[in-house]
Structures are given as structure tokens and as C-alpha cells.
Write a structure and sequence with these properties.
This protein is an alpha/beta fold and 330 residues long. It has twelve helices and ten strands. The strands form two sheets. Strands 3-4-5-6-7-8-9-10 form an eight-stranded parallel beta barrel, surrounded by five helices. The two termini are 31 Å apart. Keywords: Membrane, Transmembrane, Transmembrane helix.
Length: 330
């Protein structure tokens, strides 16, 4: 099953994945209500995880049933993505989705079975490794179990999240028989918007999913350039920023709890490229400035700690265009 929706991107696994996905982390007891609201607003992709610490995957399943029964929206119209979370990311004080003493492949199978029960579906469109394990060999052990699920037709595509070491990502990709189709990482200025990982993903045909897309970028959203572009277009700064991220080739996760914002954010998928050009350029300028400012701050902290001196404003000005060039070098 996979979502059939106009605003999609074709992934390495030959699936049509929505260009914006609803994120369900930290929704707690409101998860079912908010997932239903998001889908009724137009979302067709849902991201969750088999991680009780931060997700109520079971309540995502409740929403899926209600959408079918009360709104005639079948499972086949939705793109469901969930995650296997290694034990380091679980809260042992809560009920775990697998036996932590079991071998890693069995942990994957048990977690996947839990996801199937929670989500009331036998097929998962996208299964993501929530984070790399302590060693490469352990990550590959989990990946082989993922591949078995893909071979059995139970999973449409595979992915990995929270991987910021390009060499580690390359090693998994090179050794994987079923290649990662998506990488899901934080998107914010202090990491240069993950430009190196995104560039590699584009070359390999891997789709980059961004999270913390709004919450980690308050300076860009408040920037004069983004606000002016939003005013000119008659929209919100958040819409300008989302359009910019999509223009970079990313699939952003969106966790809004507002039905109005959900509809407005999805609206950016229909903006024509020419009409959106000014907004995207403004967001790019804000992103470059934020990245440069973050670089300056990190450098100042380093040199201050070493008894050195921070970069001057002139030096800061000189690195801005370099940062912008790097941002677009994807």
C-alpha cells in the first residue's frame, strides 16, 4: 500500500511518498485526535515510532481506524512510516515493544509485530532505524532484519534517522542489499542544515526528511527577509520556510496541532515555482545568515575556551557567502 497523492516524491524504493509528512512525536493522549485532524486537513503521510517514550503509536492506529470507519479514508490512501528504536532510545520504566534481552534481529521482529498491532495494518510503507547502534556491526545486524521484512513484502522501503556521521551513513549504504530510501535528520543552523548529508543523499537518490524544521529555526522565521516575503505573498513566515525546505529537495515533517496551520502549510505544495521564487530567495538568505551566525557562535565558544579570540564582524561577513554557497551545494 502507498498513498496516491499529487504532491508526492518518488523514492529510491519506487514508492510515491508525500512531500510533507505529519509527525506524531510528543502528542501524547491527543495523538488520535491530531492525526485525524491532520488527515482531514489534507495530510496523507504519517510518521510515528514504536517508542512509548515519545510516541503513542497505538493512538495513531486508533485514528487510522476512525478515518476508515467515520470518514471513508482507507488505509491504502495513507503513507505510514514507523521506526524501530534501539534500547538506548527506550524508557525501561515503560512497557517495551520488544524483549531487550533478545538478539537484535528478534528485537526488530518483535517491534515490527507491535507496530502492526498498534497500527492495525500488516504492511508498513516505510520502516526507519531510529538511530544507529553503538557499533557498525550492530547497525548492520538490525539492517539485515529490516531487509528480511522488505523481502517478505511487509515493508515498502527502509530508512535511517539521527545519523550525522557521513562515513557511518556511507558504510551502511554500501553494505546494505536493500538501500536506505530515506534519511531523517534534524534541520537547523548549528549543523549547517546538514548540508553534507543532504548533498550525499541527493547524489545517491536518497530522500532527505527534515524534522525540527520550524522549532529549531526561530531566528530564520523571525528574520526581516522571511517576514517581508510572507507579507508580500499574504502568508505566514512558516509557509515561506517550508517552501524553501521543500525547494531544497527535503520532505519536512510537520507536527502542527492546528487544523488551520495544517491546511496552510500543505498549501505551499501547490505554489508555482515562479510565484514562490521571491519567498524561497528570502528564506535562503535568512538560512545563510542563521548558519553563519551559528558558525560564529560555535567558533567564539571554541576560541574563548582555548583562551583565544572570537572572529571579528568583518570575518563574519566574509564567511556569509561561503555559508550560503554551501547551503545550496546540494
Amino acid at each position: 500500500m502507498q498513498a496516491q497523492h499529487a504532491a508526492t516524491v518518488k523514492t529510491l524504493a519506487d514508492l510515491h511518498m508525500p512531500r510533507m509528512i505529519y509527525g506524531t512525536a510528543w502528542k501524547k493522549e491527543r495523538t488520535a485526535e491530531l492525526v485525524e485532524q491532520a488527515v482531514l486537513a489534507g495530510f496523507r503521510g504519517i510518521d510515528t515510532a514504536c517508542q512509548p517514550k515519545h510516541y503513542r503509536e497505538d493512538l495513531v492506529g486508533v485514528a487510522l481506524l476512525k478515518l476508515q470507519q467515520a470518514h471513508s479514508i482507507p488505509r491504502s490512501e495513507l503513507f505510514i512510516q514507523t521506526k524501530f528504536t534501539p534500547i538506548a532510545g527506550q524508557d525501561r520504566s515503560q512497557s517495551l515493544p520488544y524483549d531487550p534481552a533478545a538478539p537484535l534481529p528478534e528485537q526488530v521482529r518483535q517491534s515490527f509485530a507491535t507496530s502492526q498491532r498498534n497500527l492495525h495494518t500488516q504492511h508498513i510503507d516505510s520502516l526507519v532505524l531510529h538511530s544507529p547502534l553503538p557499533s557498525h556491526s550492530q547497525s548492520m545486524e538490525v539492517w539485515r532484519a529490516f531487509e528480511e521484512l522488505a523481502d517478505a513484502g511487509q515493508v515498502g522501503q527502509l530508512g535511517i534517522s539521527n545519523i550525522y556521521d557521513l562515513q557511518a551513513l556511507q558504510a551502511i549504504f554500501e553494505q546494505a542489499r536493500v538501500k536506505p530510501a530515506v534519511v531523517q535528520n534534524r534541520f537547523h543552523a548549528t549543523t549547517g542544515y546538514d548540508a553534507g548529508i543532504r548533498a550525499w543523499c541527493r547524489k545517491q537518490g536518497v530522500t532527505y526528511q527534515s524534522f525540527w524544521t520550524l522549532t529549531a529555526n526561530p531566528d530564520a522565521l523571525k528574520s526581516a527577509a522571511v517576514r517581508a516575503a510572507a507579507k508580500q505573498r499574504g502568508c505566514e513566515p512558516e509557509q515561506v520556510w517550508y517552501r524553501f525546505v521543500i525547494q531544497l529537495g527535503c520532505v519536512p515533517l510537520n507536527g502542527t496541532s492546528s487544523s488551520r496551520h495544517a491546511a496552510a502549510d500543505l498549501d505551499v505544495l501547490g505554489w508555482e515555482a515562479a510565484a514562490a521564487a521571491a519567498a524561497v530567495a528570502a528564506a535562503a538568505a535568512a538560512a545563510a545568515a542563521a548558519a553563519a551566525a551559528a558558525m560564529l557562535l560555535l567558533t567564539w565558544r571554541f576560541w574563548a575556551g582555548q583562551g583565544g579570540q572570537a572572529w571579528s564582524q568583518q570575518e563574519m561577513t566574509e564567511i556569509r557567502p561561503l555559508t550560503r554557497e554551501k547551503l545550496y551545494n546540494v
